[in-house]
Structure formats: C-alpha cells, structure tokens
Automatic annotation (TrEMBL):
MF terms in GO: 2 iron, 2 sulfur cluster binding; metal ion binding; monooxygenase activity; oxidoreductase activity, acting on paired donors, with incorporation or reduction of molecular oxygen
Source organism per UniProt: Salinibacillus kushneri
InterPro entries: Rieske_2Fe-2S, Rieske_2Fe-2S_sf, Rieske_Fe-S_prot, Rieske_Fe-S_prot_C, TAT_signal
UniProt keywords, alphabetically: 2Fe-2S, Disulfide bond, Electron transport, Iron, Iron-sulfur, Membrane, Metal-binding, Oxidoreductase, Transmembrane, Transmembrane helix, Transport
Name listed for the protein in its UniProt record: Menaquinol:cytochrome c reductase iron-sulfur subunit
Length: 171
C-alpha cells in the first residue's frame, strides 16, 4: 500500500502541474504573435528587382542627358502608394544607355544637368554646390564624396525600363 501512495499525485503536485501547463499555454499564446511579427519581414519575398517603364523610346534617347520621370509602386508596412521618381538618361559614345539617380550623395538634394551657368555640362547640386561630371562621377574638392547612383535598366520592345538604384563606389 505504501507503494501506491508513492505513485499517487498529491493535491499540491496536481495543482502545480495544472497551473504550470495553463501558464505555459497562456505564455505561448501571447508570444506567438510577437514572434510572427518579428519573423514576418524575413519571410516576405523581396520585390526589389521589378522594372518599370520610363515611357521613353530607345530611339528618343540622345547623348545629352534628359530628365525622365517614372512611377513606382511602394509598400511601407501596410500602406501602399505610387511614388514618382526621376532619372537622368542619355546614350554614351559607344551607344550604351546610362540612367543616373539624381539624388546627391552629399545630403540627398536633387541635382540638375547644366543648371548652373558657372559650371556648364555638369550635374550641379544647388544645396552645397556639389558637382558631378556627365557620367555622374563627383568632381574632386566639391562636397559629394561618391558618384551618383545608377539605375538598373533594360530595353524591351524599344522602350526603356528602369529598376532599382545601385550605389557606385567612391571615385
């Protein structure tokens, strides 16, 4: 009979096991959404490789940089919006196309082509006098420390499509 008493669960042990189990389920119920919230962005597919039409034909692109605007669908958490972006597009001597991101690498202002009469044939940043050559390389001894970023681009059915902006190494 003493063996049966040792195998029996006391009232105190039963309550301890029950409360521990219920507490564990409650903690798991509270932690599961938090863990899902933390891991969810990692599980989402990256949408960074999409190309959008710049609405300019390949034959209309000249050797002089042209300002091109295009629209991109942007998702910030649960908010979706259409954002208008800008690129400076031109053909190089060899016929290849370059699409430059006009965001200055110094403070993020928008640069303009041939917009300053003191510096013709340069990209000029009006915020702090930053200069870039036609190919987007920063001019030494001016505020920018890196060249302008370049958009991924491709030609499909004679129309220019632009992708994400890729930063270039310091010149």
């Amino acid at each position: 009979m003493s063996e049966d008493k040792n195998k029996q669960v006391s009232r105190r042990q039963f309550l301890n096991y029950t409360l521990t189990g219920v507490g564990g389920f409650m903690a798991a119920g509270m932690l599961a959404p938090m863990v899902r919230f933390a891991i969810d962005p990692v599980l989402q597919p990256e949408a960074g490789g999409d190309f959008v039409s710049a609405e300019i034909a390949e034959e209309d692109i000249t050797t002089e940089p042209q300002r091109v605007t295009f629209k991109v669908e942007q998702v910030d958490a649960w908010y979706e919006s259409t954002v208008e972006k800008v690129a400076w597009v031109y053909k190089q001597e060899d016929g290849s196309i370059i699409a430059l991101d006009p965001t200055c690498t110094h403070l993020g202002c928008i640069v303009g082509w041939d917009s300053n009469e003191d510096h013709p044939d340069h990209f000029y940043c009006p915020c702090h006098g930053g200069l870039y050559t036609k190919d987007g390389v920063n001019v030494p001894n001016t505020p920018p420390t890196a060249p302008l970023s370049v958009y991924e681009q491709k030609i499909e059915n004679g129309i220019l499509y632009l992708g994400k902006s890729i930063p270039r190494e310091e010149a």
